[in-house]
Design brief:
Blueprint: H1 3-21, H2 26-34, H3 38-51, H4 56-72, H5 79-99, H6 102-107, E1 117-118, E2 125-126, H7 129-177, H8 181-187, H9 190-218, E3 228-232, E4 251-255, H10 257-296, H11 301-307, H12 310-317, H13 324-346, H14 354-380, H15 383-388, H16 391-397, H17 401-432, E5 435-438, E6 441-444, E7 454-460, E8 464-469, E9 477-482, E10 492-496, E11 510-517, E12 521-528, E13 536-544, E14 548-557, E15 563-567, E16 572-576, E17 582-585
Helix pairs in contact: 1-2, 2-3, 3-4, 4-5, 5-7, 7-9, 9-10, 10-13, 10-16, 13-14, 14-17
């Protein structure tokens, strides 16, 4: 320990010891005060003042101690304490000021050496009462000003911090109500817009108070604070903007709630609200088409083509991957398409064209299946949850979610009933393609078709069919019928088969070959695998479109026929096989060779 330190320690020990044993003497305390050991001197000085309230210098130094304390206080974190210390300093300065007299200064001039000045008039050093008073006045004035400035700094700081916290809380409240950005846009209403406007205003106030705080801080000199605010964009709504900021940090990062709110409002005003109105107007247009269809009994499919709005769908997809209104529209459109198809097909209901009837049934099946599919999909959706995102649309089109549910249920039930009817009709139309009708008989066209009286052997698609006819259980004949769209043949021919070569029990061994010459002349060859005296029994029929059966003859060939060829220049028919065996029939049915 240094010599000075030893002296100070002994002095302090002496004063402390004396304070316990007898009355404290000011000159002993002044030793600590004059060396600015205010912390050590303060308890003794307070004790001294409590016993000697009329000592001007003691009050002066107590004021200095409080002023020094206030200078060390953190102006933001210890504002009340700093103000309290400055108020105490002013109080003791004022007491000292009121107690100061010329006599006091002359009597205790060693205590006022800090004010010792050369008199410019006399050139002598000394302490003037006016100098001491002036200094005290300036210090009190400075303390008053500093108190006001600290209060102002803390005021702006507190408001900036408080408003930012409120902005943060408001943002998180919006986020809690709308967990995702898409839900925020879909479920937003006037209240949401007002919330965003309020958030912009609040954050504006935050930044204004923060700037005022910084401006006030400049008047404080070395305050220990110099925060700079850095605004951070909110790019991920669900994750960002949640954390609070510490306004005491020098590098202060603040979420830019104003920018986010303005951008969000802009999207709502420019995109979401017009889109909502568009949804309602689109539904109204669909309702007009339904009214037109029901009132005028006319198809509206051409109107639907014009009405389909791909732009609306793309707009909705930005906010919802599976938008309820588009499913509702799809159902309404499918319903209109199906009912339009029924109206369009009404004029053809009596048509005998089986293939046309099939195409009509297929078209009806396509659109009613679409209707049933969309209605089924809607009925499986959580409509309450989905409707919550589209209250504006539902309130302005169906009045309530319950009414929308009832509508979907009704359409689904209707689509189910219609789908069954159309499916039955479609099956019947498909089946009717496979039969032609002659009087009371139905003849299968398909080779695998089954009939008790007819067995097809050869069918040329949409041209003709030929095969075996059983007039009774013991005999068999051949037949040839043209295939028309109505399945009512315009060529109807039956011809006999040789009794000894063809029997009902030998059907599986019987085969046919046919030839079509420009849809005008037809040849039918029927043969059996069961030989007669090593010969193949054959029956050939020649048929004209205009006149029907020209002739039919029975033959016995030495080979199994595989194909026939018509010679238009001679009118001959060539019967042959892959081994080169050949028989020629002239135009009158006579076997030439």
């Amino acid at each position: 320990m240094t010599k000075v330190g030893v002296i100070k320690f002994i002095l302090f020990f002496f004063i402390a010891f004396s304070a316990q044993a007898q009355k404290v003497k000011y000159k002993d305390i002044f030793g600590l005060l004059s060396t600015k050991q205010y912390e050590q001197a303060e308890p003794f000085l307070k004790k001294y003042i409590s016993d000697n309230d009329d000592d001007a210098n003691a009050h002066l130094y107590m004021a200095i101690i409080y002023q020094e304390k206030s200078a060390k206080n953190d102006i933001l974190k210890q504002t009340p304490l700093a103000v309290k210390n400055m108020d105490s300093a002013v109080f003791f300065y004022d007491k000292a000021y009121k107690l100061l007299t010329e006599k006091e200064i002359k009597k205790n001039k060693e205590y006022y050496q800090a004010y010792n000045r050369r008199d410019l008039r006399t050139g002598e050093f000394g302490v003037k009462l006016s100098d001491v008073q002036f200094d005290i006045e300036k210090k009190m004035e400075g303390l008053h000003e500093r108190t006001d400035r600290i209060k102002m700094v803390k005021y702006y700081f507190t408001f900036a911090d408080s408003l930012y916290k409120k902005s943060n809380a408001q943002y998180k409240s919006i986020q809690a109500e709308y967990p995702t950005e898409k839900l925020l846009f879909l479920k937003s209403d006037d209240t949401t817009l007002n919330e965003l406007t309020s958030l912009v205003s609040r954050f504006d106030s935050t930044m204004k108070f923060f700037e005022n705080y910084r401006a006030s801080l400049q008047n404080m000199g070395n305050s220990g604070y110099n925060q700079m605010a850095q605004l951070v964009d909110i790019n991920d709504y669900s994750k960002e903007g949640i954390t609070l900021a510490n306004f005491y940090d020098e590098n202060l990062k603040l979420w830019d709630y104003k920018k986010w709110a303005n951008v969000t409002k802009g999207i709502m005003v420019k995109e979401v609200i017009p889109m909502r109105d568009h949804l309602v107007s689109y539904d109204i247009e669909l309702n007009k088409l339904r009214e037109k269809l029901n009132t005028d009994s006319v198809s509206v499919r051409s109107d639907l083509t014009k009405l389909i709005d791909k732009m609306l769908y793309s707009q909705l997809k930005k906010f919802d991957d599976n938008p309820l209104p588009m499913h509702v529209f799809a159902m309404k459109i499918a319903d209109l398409e199906y009912k339009s198809a029924l109206l369009e097909h009404k004029a053809f209901r009596d048509s005998l064209n089986v293939r046309l009837q099939l195409s009509l049934a297929q078209e009806e099946n396509r659109v009613v299946s679409k209707l049933d599919s969309v209605a089924t999909l809607l009925s499986t959706m959580d409509l309450d949850a989905e409707a919550d995102k589209y209250q504006h649309f539902i309130n302005n089109t169906y009045s309530s979610t319950d009414i929308l549910k009832s509508y979907i249920k009704a359409v689904k039930e209707y689509a189910g009933r219609e789908a069954k009817k159309v499916d039955t009709r479609l099956i019947a139309r498909r089946e009717s393609l496979n039969w032609i009708h002659v009087d009371a008989d139905s003849i299968p066209i398909m080779l695998e078709g089954k009939s008790s009286r007819f067995t097809p052997l050869v069918t040329e698609n949409e041209k003709f069919t030929t095969g075996l006819f059983y007039p009774d259980t013991s005999s068999v004949n051949g037949y040839f019928y043209s295939i028309t769209p109505s399945r009512l043949p315009d060529i109807k021919v039956k011809f006999p088969l040789a009794k000894d070569g063809f029997k009902p029990k030998l059907v599986s061994a019987t085969h046919g070959i046919a030839y079509n010459s420009n849809d005008q002349i037809y040849y039918v060859l029927i043969y059996s695998d069961v030989k007669l005296k090593e010969k193949t029994p054959v029956t050939i029929a020649k048929i004209y479109r205009s006149d029907g059966l020209a002739w039919s003859n029975a033959y016995q060939l030495s080979f199994v026929p595989e194909s026939i060829e018509y010679k238009s220049d001679t009118g001959e028919l060539l019967v042959n096989n892959s081994e080169g065996q050949l028989s020629t029939i002239d135009k009158n049915g006579k076997l030439v060779k």
